[in-house]
Amino acid sequence: MSIADAPVRAVISPSASLDRAARRVLAANWRRGATVPAGGLYPHQWSWDSAFIALGLRHFSPVRAQRELESLFGAQWTDGRVPHIVFDPLVPADAYFPGPAFWRSADVAGAPGVPTSGIVQPPAHALAAWETFRAAPAVARSRRFLERLYPRLVAWHDFLLTARDLRGRGLVSVVHPWESGMDNSPAWDVPLSRVVPLPPAELARRDLAHAAAAERPTDTDYGRYIRLARDYRDSGYRETPGFAVEDPLCNALLAAGEHALASIAAEIGLDPARHLARAQQVTDALMAELWDVTAGTFFAYDVVGDAVLRSYSIAGLLPVVVPDLPVATDLVKTALGDRFRLADACPVPSYDLTAADHEAGRYWRGPGWINTSWLFWYGLRLHGETGLADDLRDRLLARVRTAGFREYLDPLTGAGFGTDDFSWTAALTLDLIRTGPRR
Q1: Per the database record, which ranges form the Mannosylglycerate hydrolase MGH1-like glycoside hydrolase domain (predicted)?
Q2: Catalytic residue among 49, 179, 289, 407
Q3: How many whole angstroms separate alpha carbon 187 and alpha carbon 327?
């Protein structure tokens, strides 16, 4: 019996058919130990995608959910970094750009045997590992899942809190827009404007074969991404960046991840105190450095330009995933306002609906994504906003029923964009179905 045909428990129609369809997407995108985000556009393993995918897999195939994370961390570098792409050697070298020949990880001491990129993505992994354990503790204990993954998760967080604390303020910097997970967010426009783009002739844009140009980053933005990645590669992946931003989302996931590591440590018989202390330190730094009380949101900080980036992106709302965050109520109030319209926009917009440069269909410049909406839903539940959480869950599922498992959607009309059969959309749909409402 395939995973797509696994029994459905405690699921009633119409969710049953959506549940089955989501499992079919994940079955089709499985590749010998990991799940690709989408077979055409993204034919390799992506870092934070695997974290979100594990959250869906845990409900019906806990071993496969655990293997998803184990596979990713099997490609961890010796300095602790978890690369944002793990390349499948069986996929043609020119199927994705920039591919293994661009990143040249084999030339770097401490890189794994499998080819990878050299940059990272947001640290959603410890949270995913803990939630995966909680779904099937007996299975995880029999496989010693947490015992084996814990030291790798610690090394990953250690890398971020040392090599990437570029200002010495206790916050992690991303050194490429791709590391934020929100590639072409308007929040990065100012620091990116200092980067001279490579000409379009030097960009082998495979993405445009799978999605419309109007839904993807522009050639100018892409030219800047490739220049930054090339310069970082040519430095030997040393932290001397031309782009460095303290991102609220990445730091919030790190703080939440430290709370998860505390739970993992306690489960495997270790002292959780170190992780609780680090979680508090990151939370305190978030509040001191990135919180804007007047705006009611967190703003990113441009380390190279030494300036606050006053851009209302969903990243500024997502510290709501941090336990005991003192301003969670303020973030909910901002989300309910005109910029994000939580009460009726769905998925939660990635960028300010009232901004002149909002684009509802272009990648991270306005459309809503299931993963960031899932994080906000998770935060609503965490902070006792049960009614808002249940309403958002119901509307997210309704959007997916109508649009399918699209990469991203117009937050007002629900129109789907990007690639079809996107894995984290399917996985998080499963999680929303299986977790159910609290009302």
Answers
A1: 42-425
A2: 407
A3: 21
- Can 179 be counted among the known catalytic residues? no
Q: Count how many Cα atoms sit within 13 Å of the Cα of residue 169 in the half-sphere of its side chain.
A: 17
Q: What three-state secondary structure class fits 61?
A: coil
Q: How far is CA 75 from CA 47, 81, 96, 111, 211, in A?
A: 10, 9, 19, 8, 29
Nearest to 383 by CA among 371, 375, 394: 375
Alpha-carbon span 310 to 367, nearest angstrom: 19
Strand ranges (DSSP E) for 215-326? 245-246, 291-292, 297-298, 300-302, 307-309
Active-site hit among 68, 183, 258, 330? 183
pLDDT at 164: 97
Phi, psi of 259, rounded to the nearest 5 degrees: -60, -40
Tell me whether residue 183 is one of the annotated catalytic residues: yes
Q: What range defines the domain where residue 425 resides?
A: 3-435
Mean pLDDT by 10 residues, the chain (439 residues): 40 77 98 94 97 97 98 98 97 92 96 97 98 98 98 98 97 98 97 93 78 86 94 90 94 98 98 98 98 98 97 98 98 98 98 97 97 98 98 98 98 97 98 85
Handedness of CA 311, 317, 319, 324 (dihedral sign): positive
Q: Is the peptide bond before 272 cis (omega within 30 degrees of 0)?
A: no
CATH number of domain containing 170: 1.50.10.10
- Give the chain's domain count: 1
Rounded Cα distance, 24 and 248, in Å: 34
pLDDT (0 to 100) of residue 7: 39
Q: How far is CA 178 from the centre of its chain?
A: 10
